[in-house]
Each structure stands twice: as C-alpha cells, then as structure tokens.
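quick one before i forget lol
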Amino acid sequence: MRIDLHLHTTASDGQHSPVDLIRIVHQHKLDVIAITDHDTTAGFAEAKAASAGQPIVIPGIELSAEDEAGDVHMLGYHLRLDHAPLQARLAEFRDLRENRGRKIVEKLAGLGMPIPWESVEAIADGAAIGRPHIARAMIEAGYVESVRDAFDRYLYNGGPAYVSRYRLSPEEAVALIHDAGGVAVLAHPGLLPDYRTMALRLIPAGLDGVEVWHPDNNEHVRLNLRAIAAEHNLIMTGGSDFHGAAIKTNNHPGSTNPPDTCIAQLQARAEKYR
C-alpha cells in the first residue's frame, strides 16, 4: 500500500489546488492520503470529491503550535470537520494570520520593498495568508529569487521582516484535535532542536503519535523516534510534506511512505475521542 499522510494544497500554503493535488497523487499511484493544510480544513471536501474514493482521503490538519523551542506543529487525523468549536478556532486563526501578514508587508515596505497587499491576496487566492504567499509576492516584485531566498534573508523567525504570531501551545493543539475527535501526531520532529524532550513532554497531554517518516528526519532521528514510539505506544506515521515543486523542491507525493499498519492504528485511536 502506498501512503502519504502529509500533503498541502492552496487551501493553505501549497502550490496546487485540491483537485490538482489529487491528479498528481493519481500519477504516483497512492492508495491513502491525508490533506493536512495549515490551520484549515477547507481543502478536504474538494479533494475527497475529486478522488471519488481512490485514493482514500483522510481528513486532517496541521496546527501551527509554538513555544520557546520554536515551531512545534501538530498533525491531526480523522477530525470531525463539522465540529463547531474547531471551526470557530480556525476562523480566529485565519483572522490572526491576515493581521500578521499585513504587519510583515509593512515591515518589508520599511525595508525598501513595498508590496501591494492586493498582490498577496491574489496569490493566496482565498487561502489563509501565510509567509509563503508573501514570499511569492516578493518574487513577483523582483526582491528575491525564490521562496527559500525570501525566508533565508527576511522572513525567517527573528528575521528583519518577521512578525511573531499568536502562540497556540503544543498542549493546546493536542487538546483541540482531541476535542474534534482527531488523533494528534507530532509533525516533522527532526526540525525540532530537542524532539525527544518535546515528545516526552506531550505524552501526558495525550500525544497519539510521531511522524517518523518525513524528508527532514534523517536515519538517526527515525531510529530514535521508533524507539520512543515503541516505548510509549505512539503511532508511527509519515508523509512527504508536499507543497509543490515551486515551494519545496525534490519532493513528491509518496516520496516518503509509512507502514500500512498506521492506517488502522489511526482509525482505532480516533474511536477513543468520538
């Protein structure tokens, strides 16, 4: 079975619409996928309709949690998308993202790189606005050569144009996912400065799994994560974190494939929160 549980669409900061993503997924012959856009579930219905049952599409999300360690993203699977408290919080996050985006654009103008807000909105095309959309507007204006260039020079955490965001704690992210009937999985642990400490900290809060198979987890990290998961009964998941070649290069759906067993484990664990 070919599986990818970490895919992004234009509903957040991906390059491809949900329909186009399904077309690409078909090309790579995947059997099960999850749409895990940042802080929104807006792309799921369109992707599910386009898939017509092949591949199976699991409702998911990637919540942008943060603490002193930096970004601590949390994946949620099998969410009840009609859960009103969840959607209310996501609407709040969307408004906060827009306010943050406007402040970043103001900072860029102060650095001699004015960008019309309308250009950012056009690039986002209705999606929750994030730094990648602003980076693409910077490319269009000729200020940077690529999204990576924009982040490396201006938009990185603490950078000249960086603006801090509302801080959803990792524990709050776990609770929000559970309240909506979903399973909480620590995303791309290899990007954290101390993934072991973070995983152990979140286990008492109800952490359900860790993303073992991810492009940014090297083999050493994967071995350590597997040991942590085995010791603490955590589900081991994985995915490509595909955003599109223009946003993240050398990556495609299915390039990182977790074991088949995680699909049934996620479904069974979700039953605990129904």
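fyi The chain has ten helices and nine strands.
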